[in-house]
Write a structure and sequence with these properties.
heterodimer; A: 517 residues; alpha/beta; seven-stranded parallel sheet; five-stranded mixed sheet; 10 helices; globular; disordered N terminus; B: alpha+beta; four-stranded antiparallel sheet; 24% strand
Chain lengths: 517, 154
């Protein structure tokens, strides 16, 4: 019997060995395809991670390089979006958090060799060990073999290389290295990027892969997930996203989603229309919303996503360029030889709500740096509260509560309560609605109330106006509560539900939209 | 005999011993599937439409498949008209002697701004083309690279 057992074990190992060999054909290890990846033969733990710091000053050349464009808002520098958010003024007030902040980019992958990203990637603490990153074994038991820097869900392999360019651009906006005398600087240049490739080189992204990537990010310690992609609401698929993004939020992760470029109501785009998605529209350097940007009251806020160049609305967000991207020929930047053998510049301009979302994701990382124990709902409110309102106290159909801004972010990150209408789903149609909402207080008590406004809505809805729903209430400090209130809209129509909370003299809002048939 | 026994066990094991979990990507039960797209827009594209002798045509196109807007078709036209205006005003600032440029626009199948260029000096064709491409790329956002021939603005 023992002999048979031994043979079975041997057989199992043999079979496992076959799989190792098969898998190894698709694994790109450090130093595998590009000698430059690991020039000193260092294990990835030493090579792929550089030490992080919150820079006190910045010497990144493209930050101060003047763009040669005219038009409204000109003159301005190439990295105008970084300047407009005014995040740099916070850097000297922040210190590196004890626990690194990991931002997952669910996208086309990453150019991990980019000069402005080197050493900035997340490293799986188990799979990233020198003797484990290429051993063909799922050392951490998470279902992914040798996933030492992320995962490629398209090819089901451990190399999330960017064959499109989009994901590298996103990653750069969030966390490109700062004060390294190279290129640009990200909004939060001290984060770790976890690249999760779900989109093909052509930019097609399968929704099950996106959800699997969300689950991966949550399970492996990401604090923020950036999703700069989307598609029309297909019913069941959107419900699945609602569940996975709610799970992520409950696990302490903020999910930032691009509003979409279809110039239609964002409520029809998934996964942006998920209950807990933090939805980001796009605006230009002159503050006007980008014409392609989706609109509607599902928007949370707007961030830089395109530019007015010489009177034309076009690409204007500068970030990192992967080897497959088009060149940006008219600014000084480093040139390098890439795997294809052709030369390419390392930085590129792009436009879209894709480019807007990572600005918000980066600023969320800044907020979490200021308040590491904050919840996703508290960080969400901090970002909303510090945004630059188009009209004070109103929510805009084109900008959400306003344009992304870092002013007072540190204070708000440390004090803003988390408030969120959690049910029903945005746009739900029913005769009677059970309004669910969550309040997470900080050191101050919160007084809350619910009101509604009925359609047709103006472009800027007064968040202090409307009709009171039921009774208001108080939540004591340092408490988290889930509350519900049943409500029957008076007549058929569309209603904007407004949750208003006051804490220590400050006011916070959340909105939802429901319909009575 | 022993060899056949081991072989039998191996064959049996191959069908019964589960493959290690590490080689299976977790799948989500009852999952629906849709294909989503990146939320990046492409504003225009630059092409060398034709070249014959001392004449060539450049086109900046606004492709309906590449660009979404609140009113897609009219927006493409509007953008083409804007670019036409900008080019008309600024082309005169270029130092291009013995060169005739006719700028026009078409709306079908895509909205395009077309520059039909005639160069009287045969030796100046390539330099004129390079100057124009560089100029247009700066105005409209495309960049000059050797390949591919049909460019897309990112």
């Amino acid at each position: 019997m023992q002999i048979i057992f031994f043979v079975l074990i041997f057989a199992a190992q043999f079979i496992g060995g076959c799989n190792v060999e098969d898998k190894a054909k698709t694994i790109t290890t450090p130093g595998g395809t590009n000698p430059g990846i690991n020039p000193n033969g260092l294990p990835p733990g030493q090579y792929f991670q550089t030490s992080l710091e919150v820079p006190n000053s910045l010497n990144d050349p493209l930050l101060t390089t003047r763009a040669p464009w005219t038009g409204a808002g000109a003159p301005f520098n190439y990295l105008w979006s970084f300047e407009q958010i005014e995040v740099q003024s916070l850097f000297d007030k922040l210190s590196l958090p004890t626990q690194e902040i990991i931002v997952a980019t669910i996208d086309t992958g990453i150019d991990k060799d980019h000069e402005d990203l080197r050493g900035r990637l997340w490293l799986n603490p188990i799979e990233g060990a020198a003797d484990r990153y290429s051993n063909g074994i799922d050392d951490d038991g998470n279902g992914f073999v040798d996933d030492f820097i992320g995962w490629n869900f398209v090819a089901n392999m451990n190399n999330p290389a960017d064959d499109n360019g989009h994901g590298t651009h996103i990653a750069g906006t969030i966390g490109a290295a700062g004060n390294n005398a190279l290129g640009i600087v990200g909004i939060a240049p001290w984060v770790r990027i976890m690249p999760l490739k779900v989109c093909s080189s052509a930019g097609a992204c399968a929704s099950p892969d996106i959800r699997a990537a969300i689950n991966y990010a949550v399970a492996n310690g990401a604090k923020i997930i950036n999703i700069s992609l989307g598609g029309p609401d297909t019913g069941a698929d959107s419900l699945a996203f609602d569940a996975s993004i709610t799970n992520a939020t409950n696990a302490g992760v903020l999910v930032v989603v691009a509003a979409g470029n279809s110039a239609m109501d964002a409520k029809n785009m998934s996964p942006g229309n998920a209950t807990h998605s933090f939805v980001v529209a796009a605006h230009r350097n002159d503050g006007v919303y980008c014409s392609f940007s989706n609109y509607g009251f599902k928007l949370d806020l707007a961030a830089p996503g395109c530019a007015n160049r010489d009177g034309l609305e076009t690409s204007g967000i500068l970030s990192l360029n992967s080897q497959k991207c088009g060149a940006l020929g008219n600014i000084p930047c480093s040139t390098r030889t890439v795997n294809t053998g052709s030369s390419s510049t390392a930085y590129a301009l792009k436009q879209g709500t894709s480019m807007a979302a990572p600005h918000a994701a980066g600023l969320a990382a800044v907020a979490w740096t200021a308040s590491p124990t904050a919840t996703p709902l508290q960080i969400r409110q901090a970002l909303l509260r510090t945004s630059q309102a188009i009209e004070v106290g109103k929510k805009s159909i084109d900008y959400g509560v306003g344009r992304l801004k870092a002013t007072n972010l540190i204070t708000e990150a440390q004090t803003a309560p988390g408030i969120k209408i959690t049910s029903p789903r945005y746009g739900t149609s029913d005769t009677t609605h059970t309004l669910g909402f969550r309040i997470e207080t900080r050191s101050n008590d919160v007084h809350w109330s619910l009101r509604y406004q009925v359609a047709p809505f103006p472009d800027h809805v007064d968040l202090d106006g409307g009709v009171v729903i039921g009774s208001d209430g108080d939540v004591t400090s340092n408490t988290s509560v889930d509350l519900t209130q049943s409500w029957t809209p008076p007549t058929a129509g569309e209603y904007l539900i407004i949750l208003k909370a006051t804490a220590n003299g400050e006011t916070y809002y959340d909105t939802n939209l429901v319909t009575r048939p | 005999m022993l060899f056949r026994l081991v072989l039998s066990i191996l064959v049996y094991a191959a069908f019964t011993v589960p493959v290690r979990a590490g080689f299976r990507r977790p799948t989500l039960p009852n999952d629906s599937r849709a294909i989503y797209a990146l939320e990046q827009t492409h504003t225009a594209s630059l092409a060398l439409k034709a070249q014959s002798g001392a004449q060539f045509s450049l086109a900046v196109g606004f492709d309906a498949d590449l660009l979404n807007s609140r009113s897609t078709a009219s927006s493409h036209r509007q953008r083409a008209e804007q670019l036409l205006d900008v080019l008309s005003q600024k082309l005169v600032t270029l130092d291009l002697p013995q060169t005739d440029i006719v700028v026009s626009k078409v709306y079908s199948p895509t909205s395009e701004v077309i520059l039909n260029v005639s160069v009287n000096d045969a030796n100046a064709i390539e330099s004129t083309k390079a100057k124009l491409v560089d100029f247009i790329t700066k105005i409209s956002g495309v960049s000059f690279v050797d390949e591919p021939k049909y460019l897309r603005i990112d």
